[in-house]
Amino acid sequence: MRPWPRKRADERGFDEFVAARWSPLFGYACLLTSGDRHRAEDVLQDALVKLWFAWPRVAEQQPEAYVRRVLTRAVARSAQRRWWGERPTGTLPEPPPGEDASRAVDERTRLEQALGLLPVRQRAAVVLRYYYDLSDRQVAETMDCPVGTASSLASRGLARLRKLLAETSEPVR
Amino acid sequence: MDEFERDLARRMRETSDGARLEPAQRERLHASVRVRRRARAAWLTGGSVGVLAAACAGLFAVSGVPGGGRADTATVASASPSVPASPPARGLLTVPKGATHDERVGYLEQNATAVCMRAKGYTYTPHVDTAPDLWAAVDASDYAKAKAFRGKYGYGLYSGAVHPDDPKAPMSPASRRGEAPDAAYLASLSPKQLAAYQKALGGVRGTPSAEDAPGDQAGPTGCVGEAQRQVEGRDGQDAAHQKQEWEAAEAEQEQAQAHLDTEPKLVALADSYASCLSARGIAVTTRRPSRIADMVKFQESAKSPAEGSDHLSKSEAQLLLTADVKAAMNDLECGRKFRAAYFPEYHRLDPDHTA
Prior knowledge:
The complex is a heterodimer of chains A (173) and B (355). Chain A contains seven helices and no strands. With 173 residues, chain A is mainly alpha-helical. Chain A has two domains: 8-83, no CATH class; 100-173, Orthogonal Bundle (Arc Repressor Mutant, subunit A), CATH 1.10.10. In chain A, helix 1 (8-32) packs antiparallel against helix 2 (37-58) and helix 2 (37-58) packs across helix 3. The relative contact order of chain A is 0.11. The model of chain A is unreliable at 1-9 and 80-96 (pLDDT under 50). Chain B has 355 residues and is mostly helical. Chain B has one domain. The longest helix of chain B has 24 residues, at 239-262. Chain B is globular and about 70 Å long. The N and C termini of chain B lie far apart (63 Å). The relative contact order of chain B is 0.13. The chains are: A mainly alpha (173), B mainly alpha (355). At the A-B interface, helix 1, helix 2, helix 4, helix 5 and helix 7 of A face helix 1, helix 2 and helix 12 of B.
């Protein structure tokens, strides 16, 4: 069997999808990887390669949902195997001193660090719920788990985030 | 949703603000797709995981291969002792004994392309880019070949710059000469003549190799397209057939990988392999049987310059080659028992494997 060259219309549709949805997908990958942008890009690139091969069957359905599923599973698997040598510490480091102009960046960094302290499935559930505004049912579909599990993961993740971010919300001296 | 949750959603969405797909990212994606397509095609045509490894290790011309009209095709032809010596310029290829169906198709298509081009008045020497022996050496499915190869060339990332005149050194200028047997003829053509030659040969976007380029609505054009239709008896517009093939190939590969990754003996051997690498100071990023044999190779490849090793001085390249050889040999020795069990199982799952 020799793979036949893909039709140009297929290629165009894929390229248009990637160009249009890169930004939100990259954001999702960044949150899943706790702000590691290199790793986020790597997992997103891998997921998009998989999408390319699945494009004929998912293009007319929900390609973004497909990529979200692939990304979520990839990050969960890699965390299980510590592919990237993650070493959660359990506490957030103190925020670096900074001016107001960098406050937004600091805020984002704190959030990403806090997300990094959540177990990966809790992290994914929280991000899917709040970043993508998905229902528990949609989160469950993405994570391939029962709705109750998705709901529980998101709730526990949210509670932990509240605590982590509250602990470090004091103004920087 | 309370205030904390609303704030959380807002902060999360700020994460992706300003992230746009850059041309380099788009190109990386396209290059990855091309690499994966080749790897899958090779899997289907009796290759091995080493194909993917070779692609990532720079043995395939994804990028950084200067010049040449076939920059989108494998660059290892001349290093393959199993491919018959180049025939006389006016000759045609003989299909080697024991060729798989798809290898046979490749040879026949080359011959048909040559007949077609010659009928139009052009010079065309048929040639098949395949190097199973080299792959066996790089992916170490054959320990003895791998030891000889890796001991001299490592993973082949820098050997071309150190041994420019060695046709067996991957990416060496000498090895590239064999991939374009009509290079001298093509160089003698004027730009107008070359354009006409490429049009007659076929393909899209100016790339003679239609197989790797995106097909247009009518499928590959010119002599390449005619040869494919003649040999495979297939219509380039058969999208349903194409889709079926891709899906079947994908399912087949996923099933095979799932089996390899859960086979208890392989899992245990992969674990020992990983421990050995760790003891030698090599980072272990996966213990999956279907991945671990290529892991070190990928790591070394990731460290190598994206533009290839051509720009390195010989002394710089020599230092890097020494490190490449060391990593490749450590990987080979640590994985010896694993590979001895893995490749027979891998080939057993590959219905097209004839070795």
